[in-house]
């Protein structure tokens, strides 16, 4: 997509010219990493950058193969009318919060496969609030055995004592079947509470839930708590934290983003899933909610404008493609810079105007980062090909990752936290060769 944002013309891909030769910058955790330039290196030569189209198509095919497998499960549980279905519709189906008022209560398990237009590859199972775990027809062992995360939703505007009892029953049963599940508690509908009441409610829910686990001898079971609402970005922030725990490559991606911002004069960077606005990774600096909301709004703006002006006359094409790019200059000397990484991912940078004057340096380093992100998942594709026969062998039991067997079930791009990190360390992640 090309367009006009913030008074600047947005170009498409650059020319395919050779980059400069420069000294590699080494990082203690990534011996082989993108050949990112500092400003001093950049000033030694002038250049343009670009992406070879054939090479880019191969990268996209590898990414598609890496993600084209069965998906792990995220379970949405809670009492009736606690807001489970509304969360799913707002986050993954772009439903406006006001429309969720007309959703009917869930009366059966609803399975939603988040894969066709998203980098986030998993199934969401939305459970009706009246599920009875003591019902012999309910095979809870089968369900919990293949689960990566269990999200329990508690309505903060209602009497939550019954919900706490159901939470204890649910997580204790699930933990005994699969101790690798990540247990997440959304203290939901907090938009109607004052700030003090929000904190007090979260503290009370946290204390009571953990006391129940201690009394049951389940001290080792860890619960994570989030204050959420579909009327602001808190639900996207919470889901981002949940999904990040299921991405084994997260340390590698964070290291790459840290290297990128340290050499480009950028203050904050997010790697977003375009469809859901979940940020897959960010650098190691703290996340400010206001900055996160600005980035989410920018993604919405780019997709909305592209849907109107970026498509062909016959309506074909995509609102988000390899040419998607946007620059927004705010009145507080801050610049938001968005660039496409893959057809599912986008990078949003927050930086100062004086730093954006070195846009050529930023673009070159982004090009290297983009190549490195592709290589992280390409390495895993190769790794899957090497171990796939062994994992499928009946004599070998596949190891578990967050309750999900590696290889046949977990997306190949997410195979093995340690293995992927080691592969990335031993593989050159340079974006371009000079």
TrEMBL record:
Compartments (UniProt record): Cytoplasm; Lysosome; Lysosome membrane; Nucleus
Cellular compartments per GO CC: cytosol; Gtr1-Gtr2 GTPase complex; lysosomal membrane; nucleoplasm
GO biological-process terms attached to the record: cellular response to amino acid starvation; cellular response to amino acid stimulus; negative regulation of autophagy; positive regulation of TORC1 signaling
GO molecular function: GDP binding; GTP binding; GTPase activity; GTPase binding; molecular adaptor activity; protein heterodimerization activity
Main subcellular location: cytoplasm
Keyword line: Cytoplasm, GTP-binding, Hydrolase, Lysosome, Membrane, Nucleotide-binding, Nucleus
Region called Disordered, residue ranges: 1-27
Record field: catalytic activity: GTP + H2O = GDP + phosphate + H(+)
Pfam families: Gtr1_RagA
Function, as annotated: Guanine nucleotide-binding protein that plays a crucial role in the cellular response to amino acid availability through regulation of the mTORC1 signaling cascade.
Family membership noted in the UniProt record: Belongs to the GTR/RAG GTP-binding protein family.
Protein name, entry field: Ras-related GTP-binding protein
